[in-house]
Amino acid sequence: MRRLLRHLKPFTFLVILTLGLVLLQSLSELALPSLMADIVDFGIARGNTEFIWKTGGKMLLVALAGVICSIASSYFSAKISTGFGKELRGEVFTHVTSLRVDDFEEFGTASLITRTTNDISQIQMVVLMLLGIVASAPLMFVGGVIMALSRDRYMAKLLLAIIPVLVVVVVVVSKKVMPMFKEVQQKLDKLNLVLREGLTGVRVIRAFNKIDYEKKRFDEANRDLTETMLRVNRTMAVLMPIVNLSINFLIIGIIWVGSHRIDLGYMEVGGLMAFIQYAMHILMSMIMVSMIFIMLPRAAVSADRINEILDTEPESDIMVVEGGIVTVDARDAKATLRGTIEFRDVTFSYPDAERPTLSNITFTAKPGQMTAILGGTGSGKSTVVNLIPRFFDVDSGQILIDGVDIRDIPLRELRGRIGLVPQQAILFSGTIAENIRYGKPDATDEEVRRAAEIAQALDFIEKLPKGFDSYVAQGGVNFSGGQKQRLCIARAIVRRPDVYIFDDSFSALDFKTDAKLRAALKREVSDAVMIVVAQRVNTILDADLILVMDEGKIVGSGTHKELLKTCQVYREIVLSQVAEEEIA
C-alpha cells in the first residue's frame, strides 16, 4: 500500500493544506464543549446575560471557522483522491499494455479489468478517508483525553477502562476479514469473466439457445460472490454494535458518576456536559479509526493485486516509467527490416506445454516473394508468424533479419516495420477511417483511400451513407466477416511496412475478391517480404515458396508443382479441396 502512495507526490502541497485544514477543524470541535460549559456554569447559573452573549459569539465564530475548514478539507480530499486514482490507473494501464502475451493469459482479461477499475477504486476510497481521518482522529483522541482530564481526573478512569476493549475488538475483526476480502476480489474476477463472455458471445449463445445455461452460470458466480460478501458483512457487523453499546454504557456511567460528583460539589453541570462531549469525541475518533481498519484490509488486498501487475516484467526492451512507456530509440536498432527473414532451427513451446509447439523450423522468406504456410489445424502455422513480431521468444534457434537476431532489434523498431493482419479480424469502435489510420496515424485521406482500394474494401465503403466516416461498432459487429478482414488488411497496407504477415486473413473472402486482392497486393508490395498463412490452397497456388507444416514441423517446402510431386501431406490437403482432374 505504501508503495502505491508515491502517486500522491504531485499533490504534496494539497495534502499538507488538507491536513492543516483538518487540524483546524478538529481544534474548533475541541474548543466548543469548553465554551458551552462556561456558558452554563458562569452565564446561565449566575444569570450573567452579557457573558452568555459574549461567549456565545465566540462559539459561533469557532463553529463557522470549523465549517469552512470542513468544507475546504472535503473538497481538497476529493480532488487529491481522484487525482491519485487517475495517476494509478494510468500507470497500471500503461504497464498492462507492455506485458508479454503469456502474461495476459496468466492474469486473464477479466482480472486485469477488475484490478484496473474496482481495485483502484478501493484504494482511492481509502486515500479519501485517510486524508480526513489520519490527522483528525489522533488529535481528537489526544485532545479529548487531555480536556477530559482537565475537567475531572476521577471520571477519566471510565474512559481508560473502555478504550482497550474497543481496540481489541477492532484488531480481531480486521484480522478476520482480511483473507475474506481477498476471496471477494477473486470472486469478482470470476463474475466479470462470466459477464464478459456472456456479452461478447451473445450471438453464439442465442444461436445455440444457451440463454438459460448462461443465466445459470451468471447466477452461480453472482451467488458465490454474494455469499462471500455476506460473510464479510456479518463479521464486520459485529463491530458497530459493540462500539455503540460500549458508548451507551460509558455515557450512562458518566452521568451516574457525574451526578454524584455534582451533589458533592466536585463538578459543575456545565463541566459534566463538557465531559460527555469530550468522551464522545474520544469514542468517535475510535469509530473513525475502526472504519479505517474495516477499509484497509480490502484496500491492502487490492494493493497487492495491483503490485502483482506492476511487478511483472514488461517485454524485454520496453521500460515502464511514471507517465508512460519508454522504448529504446529506433535509431539504436542494429538492423533495418528491408531484407531477408530467416528462421534457423527454431524450437518453441508455450508455457506448461507437454511438448514443443514448433520443432527445428528452418526457412528463408525473401523480399519481393510470397512465402506461404499451409497445414492442418494445430500444426503451428500461426505460432510461426507470431514469433516474428516477438509476441513470444523462441526457446532455441534464431530468427534473423538481414543476419541480425530480432532479439537485438528494439521492439518499437521491429513492430513498426511489420504489417500484421491477425487470424481474428479485430476492429475498434470509431469510424472506418480511424480504424484504417490505426496502422498509420498521420496517413492522408488519399493514403487511406488507396489502402482501402488495394484491400478491395473501397466498393462497400463508398456504398455506405457516410463513407469513410461510417461508424464501426465495438468489435466491428456491424460488418460482415469478409468486410472486417478487408478493413484489417487496409490497416496493415496503409503503413507501408517492409514485412506483411497475413495470418489466414482471406478465409472470409469469396474467391473472386480473394483473387483480386492477391493480384493488387502483388503489384503494390513487390519489394516487401510477404508471409501468408492459409487454409485454402487457391490462395497460395502462385506463392514463390510454400511451407507445409504438420505437428509443429516443416514436412515439405517448394512451389505448388514441386510439392505435388514430393510432399504427400500437401497432396492430401490439395485433394481435399480440389478434384484430382483439376490438379492434372
Key traits:
single chain, 584 residues, alpha/beta, ABC transporter transmembrane region fold, Rossmann fold, 6-stranded mixed sheet, 4-stranded antiparallel sheet, 14 strands, 12% strand
Q: What is the architecture of the domain at 4-320 at the second tier of CATH?
A: Up-down Bundle
- Give me the CATH superfamily of the domain at 4-320: ABC transporter type 1, transmembrane domain
Instruction: Kindly report the CATH topology of the domain at 4-320.
Output: ABC transporter transmembrane region fold
Q: For the CA atoms, what is the radius of gyration?
A: 35 Å
Largest sheet: 6 strands, mixed
Envelope shape? elongated
What would your notes on this structure say?
This protein starts with 11 loop residues before the first helix and ends with a helix. It has helices spanning 12-44, 49-97, 101-107, 109-133, 136-151, 153-200, 202-207, 211-237, 239-263, 269-310, 381-387, 411-416, 432-437, 445-454, 458-462, 481-493, 511-524, 560-566, 568-577, 580-583; strands spanning 318-321, 324-327, 341-348, 358-365, 370-375, 396-401, 404-405, 418-421, 430-431, 471-472, 499-503, 529-534, 545-550, 553-558. Strand 11 (499-503), helix 17 (511-524) and strand 12 form a beta-alpha-beta unit. It has 584 residues and is an alpha/beta fold. Among the domains are: 4-320, ABC transporter transmembrane region fold; 420-496, Rossmann fold, CATH 3.40.50.300. The radius of gyration is 35 Å and the shape is elongated. Helix content is 62%, strand content 12%.
